Amino acid sequence: MLSLVLALAVVATNANDAPRDTLRLALMHGVPEKWNVEKNFATFLTQLDEASAQKADVFITPECWLDGYAAPDETSTPEKLRTIGQDLNTSTYLARVAEEAKKRSLMICFGFTSVENDKLFNAAGLWNAQGERIGLYHKTHLQTHDLQYSPGEGLPVWDSPFGKVGIMICADRRWPETPRTLRLEGARLILNPTYGFAGEMNEAIMRTRAYENQCFIAFAHPSTSLVTGPGGKVLAKWEGDTPGVTVCDIDLSQAKDDNHLRDRRPEIYGAITQPKTSKK
Fold first, then answer.
1. Where in the chain are the domains?
2. Span 56-107, pLDDT tens digits
3. Relative to the CA of 114, which of 61, 176, 233, 261 has its CA 20 to 30 Å away?
4. With a threshold of 0.90, does the pTM exceed it?
5. Taking the mean position of all CA atoms in its chain, how far away is CA 273?
């Protein structure tokens, strides 16, 4: 009985531990090969080795890394996408992601195409350092080629040793409501796997999104790694096509709830939540 009481006390203590503020991000970059799941996964493992060697806490891939973001390919169809889509329960690749997260004791945000209930999703899974999938996000804002996917229907956040973490995928960042919602749900860190446009305009957007939400955003793109912080500054940046990992240490205690969050006026923002209307 004494052993049981002690064990329960340990569990209670761990559950109430304050979130850890300092962590090391590792953002994967490099251009994957469309449709070549095996090759892309091998590259993922190689860059995971580098991240582990640099003692990363969180590893982030670009959007749909596993299939090389095949949807924009001119030969892509929903039927063809299904050939590289991953079943959450039977995928050997996703099972391996879980194994690697546990073996290396780090959190992994991994981009892939999922097949769920006969629907295709542009997805990103989040595995903790124990190898458990604690989150699954479906891209919510779909345009042009992404219309082969079904849209996500929510903006969840998940508990982690670093507090609540949110995910948005690629174009989701264009709508300020996306990171604002994640921030209001408690996310101090937003992971942004992407494959879309980068460059000067994107950097301005990412700096603004972090500044207006007083949070950290980790943008992982095949040719750009970018981390922006609550002050709107660029904390880490890499550009090029060479496969590798960009590492950045951050302090989440800097993500505060004063200023922009404290001084919001939600009572006058009603138009934001109204359904979109068609143009006449």
1. 20-263
2. 999 999 999 999 999 999 999 999 999 999 999 999 999 999 999 999 999 9
3. 176
4. yes
5. 24
